Amino acid sequence: MHWTSWCVLLLCWGGSRCSDPPPDGQDGELDGYQADSHTKRSPPPVEPLDFGFVPSAVYATHAYYEPGAMGILFHVVHAFLYVVQPNPFPKDLIVRVIQENKGRMKLDEWRKPENIVLLLQGVYYEAGFLVCGSLGLVFLVLVPIVGTCFCVCRCCDNCGGEMHQRQRKNADCQRGFFTASLIITSIFIILGVLFAYAANHNISNQIKSTRRLVNTNMRDLKTFANNTPAQIDYLTAQYTTAKNKVLSDLDNIGPLLGGRIHSQLEREVMPSLDTALRMAGDQRGTKEALESIGSSLDTLQEGTVRLQLSLSNERASLSNTLSDPACTNGAVSHTCNTIRSTLGQLGSSADFSTLPDVSRQLMNVDALLKTDLSNIIQKGYSSFNDTPRLVKEQTKNIVAGVKVMLDRIGGEIVDFAKMFPVEASLANFTIFLNQGQQQIESYYAQIDQLDFYRWIGCVAALCTVVLIVCFNLLGLLCGSCGYDKQATPTNRGCLSNTGGNLLMAGVGFSFLFAWALMAVVSSLFVVGGNVEKLICEPLANRQLFQIIDTPYIMHPGMKNFLPNMLFQNPNIDLTVGGMYRECHENYGLYHALQLETMFNINSFLNRTVYNKDLANVFESIHVQLQDVSLLEQEGRDALISFANSGVGEIDFTAYLTEANKAVTLVDLLSFATDLEAQADQLPRGALENALKGHASSIRQINKDQVVPLQQAMNSLSQSVRLLQKTVSDLPVQVTNVLSAIDAAEYLITNNASHVIKQETNGYMQMLVGYFRQYTKWVKSSLSAEVAQCKPISNIVDSMEIVGCSFIVDSVNTFWFGLGGCLVLLIPSIILSVKLSKYYRRMDTEDVFDDMDNSGGRHGDQVFDFHGNLAVVSSSLSNSLKLFPRASAPPIDPDW
């Protein structure tokens, strides 16, 4: 049993040596760690690890048997046994009998009422077998007695022994009925012989198939033994997968942990920096707007002066033209007066000379821009974005310590697995299997020899029945072929007489062998039937396991039999039926034997893979962000100076008022068009041409001076509006930006510890998740893939196939067929005796006297068996008178 103990222990490499509960705080650390930090934010998702596939074992045994055509016979026998024994499996009765008979109950104790009840229940259950067995016993006793009496009776010329056949009118009908009945009976006997022979031959064939099952089961056990060490090594080696992933994440602690801290803080930090950066852009936009306003203002002031001069000259020139004497003509004077009245409209509308200068504000902004506020803010961005590097720098010592601890844990797992001599134990187990297989194979020759003797004995038993059938068939054949209706019973031919003698020989052999064969049939029936009903059927539906698994069935202090045998601990809830069921589903032996009750893999892995030391190291991770600076003092001064630059003091209303005015009092193009229209009303001449020349000059002034001024006014308006929008409540904006930056810096330096702790816990949970995946994978692999115990259930199934399907079913079919033959021998005996009278040559036959009317005797006449008239001697006539029963005459010297 040494190798058995090691085979159980080798599967528990990851467990504890005892079933004591683990110390507080160790068991469940992987699961309990997450409960220590209930945060609002969910932990980061753990990347699934690929541990690959445990090297699987391929088992060659297919523990399934399909009997084929023999299955029909087996079903017939099962149906017969159900008729004989329809009662359900007596589980409770067997359990009570075993429990009552533990101490080898004495004879006197059986007289107790409760034991008598058990006995009566057993008799009731076995009633069918007892009745059939009693009938077989009666057959066994009566057949030789009846045979002996029958022989003695026939020797005394009784029981059909007299060689005389009476005349009967329905003799042919009776002979035909007896012949047909004997043929049918012989056919059924032959069928029974064939059934029995098929079962006998099936046993021999299946015994040869048993070798295949033995070889495949042994091969599977060797495969089990050879693959288990490799599977265990694979489990221990896959710790490296989890460890490497943890080490990879530790190497990337900056991007992983620092990145998550950064992402949490940027919700408050980034908006303030973005606002400051936009204000730095506003400074450059303000400068551009001020430059545009100053440029546009200079253009407009200069252009307005030049436009006023041009319009004044044009107005004077036009006035001189209208002073021409031609305008004094009555028809023309009205037009000239009309034109003269519009001369006052030729003038500029906007006056930009009164608008204030923005050169002071522009100078202030230029001075501010000498400080690169954008670069200062970018430094704040860089300082904040440098959080991952800070995390990595501050945790480099912790990461180095964790790496050392992980290497040590991996070594502990490997060392613990090597504590058990797995390879040596399995090597001994393999040697044991080889020796066992050799020992089994050494019995093959003896088994074959014994099976041959068994086959010969069964065939000899069947040959006796076949001999009787042969006598019957040969007797029928000879009797039928030699029978002559015209022949009298005393004159029957030799062939017919031989047929009758063969029939009687069959009767003699029936009496001679039937009782001995019935003894064999009865014994096989009682044994084989009970084995089928009490072992094979409950084994097939697993009710037999329920008996074995009954608590305290073996001993009052032993709850469960199997764990007491394997682990010397009967209180473990481990049953044979449960183990068989798990092995039949090809689960691992760790799960099938419920080894977690003795070797807690979770406890070991929780204490080893993620222990308190490693947890303390993780919890010692602290990250400080006091060195993060979002905005230097120079940048703050620049923002304050921008607020005090005087940009907000500009009179934007005055600028917009002048910019929204028209350049001239009247639209010069419309004025020129009207002037040309009025000139067309004048007679053709110098006046008309002069007016049209003035209209052309006005258009040219509009093109050269008014249009550029309009463009400058539009540019001025846009710049003023943009600047007004930018610097609206500028001091308030600057104050808000500085306040937001101060709040962000205060959050980073003072209140970030909560965020850091939260993200550190999430990071540690992610690392722990890799170990949790490993431990979960190890447990599931131990339960389903490592040391798959299918060979154990295959052995049970193979034993059921060999014992029940191969042997018991065939033996039951043999006695069923042979027993049917023996039962049919009874009508065969009766029919053979009856039918032999019609074929054997008789010593005497019936005769009748034929008297004349006067009563005289003219001669002695008799009728033969068929009613034909014949003449006989007077001595024969006298003998018939003396013996009216037509029996044979007494011996007389005159005969």
Largest sheet: 2 strands, parallel
User: What is the percentage of strand-forming residues?
Assistant: under 5%
Molecular shape: elongated
Number of helices: 30
Q: Residue ranges: pLDDT <50 for 5 or more in a row?
A: 1-40, 848-895
What's the rounded overall pLDDT mean?
A: 76
Number of strands: 4
Structural class: mainly alpha
Report helical residue fraction: over 70%
Strand numbers in spatial order across the main sheet: 1-2
User: Roughly how many Å apart are the termini?
Assistant: 92 Å
> What would you report as the Rg, rounded to the nearest angstrom?
63 Å
Secondary-structure map:
Elements: H1 2-10, H2 29-35, H3 70-84, H4 91-100, H5 113-125, H6 127-155, E1 164-165, H7 171-237, H8 239-251, H9 253-322, H10 330-341, H11 359-369, H12 373-385, H13 387-394, H14 396-419, H15 422-442, H16 444-482, H17 494-540, H18 543-548, H19 561-567, H20 576-584, H21 589-592, H22 601-608, H23 612-619, H24 633-643, H25 652-659, H26 668-681, H27 686-726, H28 730-784, H29 790-836, E2 844-845, E3 861-863, E4 869-871, H30 874-882
Parallel strand pairs: 1-2
Antiparallel strand pairs: 3-4
Helix pairs in contact: 1-15, 2-28, 4-5, 6-17, 7-14, 7-15, 7-16, 7-29, 8-14, 8-28, 9-11, 9-12, 9-13, 9-27, 9-28, 16-17, 16-29, 17-29, 20-29, 24-28, 25-27, 26-27
